[in-house]
Design goal:
6 strands, 4 helices, alpha/beta, 6-stranded parallel β-sheet, single chain
Amino acid sequence: MEKAEALLIIDMQKVAFTVTRYDSESVTRRIARLAEQFRLKNKKVIFIQHNGEVDNYCYPNTEEWEIISELPVQPEDIVVEKRANDSFYKTNLEEILRTHNIEKLYITGCATDFCVDATVKTALTKDYDITIVSDCHTTADRPFCKAKTLIDFYNWLWADLTKTKYKIKVVPVAEVNID
């Protein structure tokens, strides 16, 4: 059986955009176009939605918890709720991926240096074939580092991680070729 592909859209929620995120409008537009390409090819689009109850914010079914309006969730999309940075940690994500025979993940979202990074590293150790869409993730400036520097650093880091079953690919959206 052929291995399927899915697009992960991590934490593109209203709460994440209450602070300035690097190039957020362009990043969001690129993610939206990529999601449409996946849907047109009958590929899975999986939204990861952070539940921040443990930190006393971002409660489910509140406005801050909602996915941003520029990325409307479609009926055929899948939504996974998480409570930690890692999208796999105590969620049903891996079960969903197995159920749909998904081995290849295209990863996008917010924030590069937290939830995206944690998810990438777990996906790598679980032997998923990972493509990071280098211009489809964002973060904010941090106390000791600008957002653009962090994005460039993580794109470099992910591309240079030791492979497990697959080597991580880091490519801009213009080079994404959905099988």
